[in-house]
Amino acid sequence: MTLSSRIAMPGQIWSVAAQDPSGPLYVTSYGAGPLDTVVTMVDVSGSQAWQRTFAGTGRPQSRLSADGTLWVAYPHLDGRILEGILPDGSTHRRVVPESEAGEEVSAFVLLEDGFCIAWAGASRVLRMSQDEQPAIPEPRVARYTWEGSCVWSTPIVLGTVSHPGVVGAGVETGWEVRPLRPWVPEEVAVDHWEPLLVSGDRVAASFTDTRSGLGRTFFLGLAGGAIVSATSPAPSGRKAIAGLGEFLIGSQGYGEFTTGRYDRDGSETARWASHGAMLVNGRGAICGPELENCLPSKSRFRRLAPDNTLMDGPLLTGYYTSYPAMDREGTAVFWRDGRLLAIDADLAAHELFAMDDSRNSMGRTLLLDDGRVVVSLGSEILSFHSPLGSLAEGPWPCGDGNLLGNPMLD
After folding, report:
1. How far apart are CA 197 and CA 271, in angstroms?
2. What is the CA radius of gyration of the chain?
3. Tens digit of pLDDT for each residue in 185-224?
4. Which residue, 149, 222, 257, 401, shows the most beta carbons closer than 10 Å to its own?
């Protein structure tokens, strides 16, 4: 196992995608500061084809389409723009979806005929840079054509939130620590992890109270935007597409460490006492590294069985973890605690590479041709030669979804 290349970017990397298992890589990162978004195309050896800089929001965002067009979201005088960049670095088109003052494209997904966008208030770093600071608008989810025409727009009302694990003490409690009464959030944003997923005829859009981290996932119909169902308020966590119209919704914090499975009606059909970066293969089997939010960690690589039980894989040291990929033999690969790890179909662990590294900002793991593994750490991309096979197919995040970085299952 060898480290074949290290590729430096101008700032922290937010996403890496590839149109094809042979590359090249589309890298979206910060630039000189948080209000610069930089898009770079490089091959897997590190040779740069082109690099472009855009205005940033503090949340660099891009999605890669199957035809090799990279769509980037950024602010502009005309509002919020989605720009498509062709493989040669030139602009394909610019789309300006209708927006309100003070809101931004907080998350978006490319559809076959347009875009699905989660709108929320602009990030603090962007608001602080503006002379005028409009009131923070209410969040919404909307669908648009490729030309930017709105097909539907659905307001999102988070409502009151509470959780038994959120406690406080004050005069009203006689200074006794008690669960806080339900409250209405002052500011609502999209969730940090997988805020917008599209599977079949369903959309899963997750929003949170920015102060507490409590949030809800709203399930909407893709055709008309009607809200089908919503989860109860809970600490936010990792999410995944589990099948057509089905999703995994994780929850971690305030004593929660769970993952629920929801069908296309928004009904919970299973729940496991585990939370992590889960893979769902072509047979619907679920597994992945746990992300227990404490150190020392008791996290394992787990397999989530259909009867709500857990199958124990190896113990995992550390915490910060790249989202794994899986090959067709059922081996998962990811970066954790300074090591590139592979967990095979028998839940046996194999250390493929190790180095002294404490960086805690990392993205997805990409599995390319000839067993090449690509991982982003901070502002650097590491590329490895490995004995792994070709990328598996499955709902999440296998197949094209893994390479394109566009969370949609059609």
Report:
1. 19
2. 21
3. 999 999 999 999 999 999 999 999 999 999 999 999 999 9
4. 257
